[in-house]
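Hi support team,

I've been running sequence recovery on a batch of backbones for a student project. Most finish fine, but this one hangs at about 90% for roughly twenty minutes before it completes. I'm not sure whether the input is malformed or the queue is just slow. I've pasted the structure tokens below so you can try to reproduce it. Let me know if you need the job ID as well.

Thanks,
M.K.
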């Protein structure tokens, strides 16, 4: 006997997962789907399921059928931005909406004449126009208003939205690919990466493509920051290869490339600096950014128009340090791009491989409990580590922010103490008590004593970066410790920790960028005098003897001469690299001088450049090989945090501010750092403050993919019955105590959907029914002959097939099946005893 599987489930705690998200969760995401694309809708549904996105956080684009590549600013504003802003406002999401997930088949470029922005950037800080053309390209400019003030901030996004945004700002990413299966795989790998703490390698690749390898000057800082934080997996390499495996991250400078299958472990990100990687669905002649996703990365980036090779328009590799700190992928990525207006962010925004999980429980509330009047809610939270206290707890009701239950910012009067090189510096927390303000104040206090400590401090969000100013003192000899006290305050909520007990020495090599200008005439010359760190002087010169030679020819001659000078080959000498005939039309060429030994002392090798009057060479003075001096000084970090390691909440909740009926309460605690990792614990309960009541029931599915529901309410006269599901309201009936609703399964799309009704009586009282969940398409088992079970399925989703020979006994698992197409078939031996079978949706 093969009964139809009951797949309508009462799952009031469906959003009750206790997963952690760095600085954001499904509560903070708006998922945008294009109703003209079944793939867009299905992927959006799956994202909501995987990330616990509340149904009211789904925006359906119902007016856009113009393709998935580009639209103009008016279309972007009318069909996406305005509906998005309206949704956020009308559904009470202003305090929580931070991320936007664009699900497949939504245009990725906004274009107006010669001005082209990515859709993700336009959602981030508005559509930006070009400045004056550069090199004949209208898009090769860097207008001031395209700068991203959130970049390098190390602040929670809600505290540091870009100052050039004219409306709400969102960390927008496009979850997309050339097909649905590939996009689904990116989603699943992103989700699977949370709190996995990967140790796999990040390669920062300097290629031989001189126009595209320009990010290499940013590599040393990224390596150094990660090493100070205890992550030694980030490495610089010189390579044009992409044939790597077991990567966590990869940055390169290539136009075309290919990856091994699953080259990246879950949660990684990577990109290339080239012109058209953001043209993801066009044949631009360059490899699109989605190639990184198809190789297993959770996120990538590329520009949608010719940007020229401004490093500011591309991700800084410091994004891997932000990930190491625990920031989500979208937060890390947006913080690393100073001018993102032409750049498209693709991937899974919430992936957070280094988020630190905390613990949570309820001490006085059980699932199904009935509450009325003012009820005391008592969730308890435990920090993941002593240096990651919990600072705030918010209450969400049915996925919408309700109220802050407790908040423990830095307390005025607390005292932070730093013992630096044997000198104690105390700082008292002032009235402006944000983490960033405390970090900035502490940095100023440290700098007032820098003449004694020989250490310079700079505040970056909640972090204070320390750099030693003593060239010849190793970092291991520069010590630091931190402590805190209550001071004049009644309690201690402000904390300070050092990344390591002694400073870390750099692995970077000092360099000097040398640039030659103007077209040489016959007998024009350039000379350099080097002074090695032992006082030895070496003078070299080249003279132009060839009529019509370019400045590049002269610079190349000097480059070759330095390389061929044996006295410079020693450990205290120099080498050459990265020759670039930078702009032959403007008569300029450049190369780098590199110290042969890493570290700040070796960079004190001096170079003095001179030339004939017709030429110009920079630097024009006597300079060390220390253009990257901040990457050469020994370094350490201090972290300012607030809160407590055990956060016990006792919150008087006024349940009369909620409708009667069934609700899910989510208590969300935030780590007291800029990362603000969330810990969530939920309970499903029933509120009763009036006599109003209602029930929601599912009827057998109708023909042509129609779902049917009935609602019965009373006893008071009923003014309104409204059915809600994925995306918001699905129908309204006025002035009736009962109602029947029909919902198109095609409109909802494939996936798992919640349904609930809200009833309003004529006195204004409201009642919310229990949530009913349904899988579209609904599951019906069929038997072919006597030995083959089959059921309709969604490709890529898993199903549990269970059986029992006695309905009074428990069902037992027979198999877990992953659907490869729209139907699953499972053979059953005809010789088996008669049995009952059922199928359950796994994810």
């Amino acid at each position: 006997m093969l009964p139809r599987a009951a797949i309508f489930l009462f799952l009031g705690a469906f959003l009750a997962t206790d997963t952690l998200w760095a600085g954001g969760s499904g509560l903070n995401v708006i998922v945008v789907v294009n109703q003209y694309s079944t793939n867009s809708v299905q992927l959006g549904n799956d994202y909501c399921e995987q990330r616990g996105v509340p149904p009211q956080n789904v925006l359906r684009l119902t007016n856009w059928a113009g393709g998935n590549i580009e639209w103009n600013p008016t279309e972007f504003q009318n069909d996406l931005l305005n509906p998005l802003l309206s949704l956020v406002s009308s559904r009470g999401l202003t305090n929580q909406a931070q991320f936007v997930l664009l699900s497949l088949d939504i245009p990725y470029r906004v274009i107006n004449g010669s001005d082209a922005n990515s859709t993700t950037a336009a959602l981030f800080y508005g559509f930006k126009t070009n400045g004056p053309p550069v090199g004949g390209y209208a898009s090769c400019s860097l207008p001031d208003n395209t700068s991203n003030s959130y970049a390098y901030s190390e602040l929670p996004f809600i505290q540091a939205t870009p100052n050039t945004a004219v409306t709400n700002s969102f960390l927008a990413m496009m979850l997309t690919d050339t097909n649905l299966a590939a996009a689904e795989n990116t989603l699943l790998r992103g989700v699977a990466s949370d709190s996995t703490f990967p140790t796999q390698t990040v390669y920062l690749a300097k290629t031989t493509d001189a126009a595209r390898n320009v990010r290499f000057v940013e590599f040393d800082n990224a390596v150094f920051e990660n090493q100070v934080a205890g992550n030694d997996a980030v490495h610089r390499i010189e390579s044009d290869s992409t044939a790597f495996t077991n990567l966590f991250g990869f940055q390169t400078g290539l136009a075309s490339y290919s990856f091994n299958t699953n080259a990246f472990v879950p949660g990684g990100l990577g990109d290339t600096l080239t012109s058209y990687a953001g043209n993801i669905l066009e044949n631009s002649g360059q490899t699109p950014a989605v190639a990184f996703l198809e190789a297993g990365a959770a996120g990538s980036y590329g520009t949608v128009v010719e940007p020229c090779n401004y490093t500011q328009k591309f991700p800084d590799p410091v994004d891997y340090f932000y990930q190491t700190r625990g920031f989500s992928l979208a937060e890390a990525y947006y913080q690393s791009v100073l001018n993102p207006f032409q750049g498209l962010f693709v991937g899974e925004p919430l992936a957070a491989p280094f988020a630190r999980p905390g613990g949570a429980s309820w001490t006085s509330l059980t699932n199904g409990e009935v509450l009325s009047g003012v009820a005391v809610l008592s969730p308890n939270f435990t920090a993941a580590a002593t240096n990651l206290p919990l600072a705030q707890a918010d209450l969400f009701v049915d996925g919408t922010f309700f109220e802050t239950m407790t908040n423990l910012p830095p307390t005025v009067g607390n005292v932070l103490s730093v013992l630096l090189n044997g000198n104690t510096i105390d700082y008292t927390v002032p009235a402006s008590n944000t983490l960033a303000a405390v970090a900035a104040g502490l940095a100023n206090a440290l700098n007032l004593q820098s003449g004694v400590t020989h250490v310079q401090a700079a505040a970056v969000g909640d972090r204070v970066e320390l750099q030693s100013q003593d060239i010849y003192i190793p970092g291991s000899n520069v010590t630091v410790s931190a402590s805190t006290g209550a001071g004049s305050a009644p309690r201690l909520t402000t904390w300070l920790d050092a990344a390591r007990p002694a400073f870390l020495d750099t692995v970077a090599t000092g360099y000097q960028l040398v640039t030659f200008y103007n077209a040489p005439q016959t007998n024009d010359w350039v000379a350099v005098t080097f002074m090695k760190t032992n006082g030895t002087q070496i003078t070299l010169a080249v003279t132009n003897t060839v009529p019509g030679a370019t400045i590049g020819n002269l610079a190349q001659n000097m480059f070759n001469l330095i390389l061929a000078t044996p006295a410079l080959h020693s450990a205290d000498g120099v080498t050459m690299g990265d020759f670039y005939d930078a702009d032959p039309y403007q008569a300029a060429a450049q190369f780098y001088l590199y110290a042969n030994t890493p570290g700040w002392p070796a960079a004190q090798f001096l170079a003095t450049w001179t030339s004939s009057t017709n030429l110009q060479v920079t630097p024009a003075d006597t300079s060390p090989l220390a253009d990257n001096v901040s990457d050469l000084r020994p370094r350490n970090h201090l972290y300012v945090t607030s809160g407590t390691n055990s956060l016990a909440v006792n919150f008087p909740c006024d349940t009369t501010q909620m409708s009667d009926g069934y609700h899910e309460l989510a208590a969300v605690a935030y780590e007291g750092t800029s990362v603000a990792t969330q810990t969530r614990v939920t309970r499903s309960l029933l509120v009763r403050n009036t006599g109003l009541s209602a029930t929601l029931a599912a009827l057998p599915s109708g023909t042509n993919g129609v779902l049917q529901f009935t609602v019965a309410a009373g006893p008071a006269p009923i003014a309104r019955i409204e059915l809600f599901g994925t995306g918001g309201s699905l129908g309204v009936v006025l002035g009736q105590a009962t109602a029947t609703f029909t919902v198109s399964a095609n409109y909802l799309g494939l996936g798992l959907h919640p349904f609930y009704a809200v009833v309003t009586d004529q006195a204004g009282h409201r009642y919310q029914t229990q949530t009913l969940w349904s899988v579209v398409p609904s599951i019906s088992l069929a038997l072919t002959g006597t030995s083959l079970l089959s059921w309709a399925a969604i490709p890529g989703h898993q199903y549990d097939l269970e059986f029992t020979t006695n309905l009074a006994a428990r069902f037992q698992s027979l198999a877990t099946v992953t659907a490869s197409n729209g139907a699953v078939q499972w053979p059953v031996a005809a010789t088996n005893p008669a049995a009952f079978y059922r199928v359950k949706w796994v994810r």
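--
Follow-up from support: It reproduced on our side and the slowdown came from queue contention, not your input. The two ends are 26 Å apart (CA to CA). No action needed from you.
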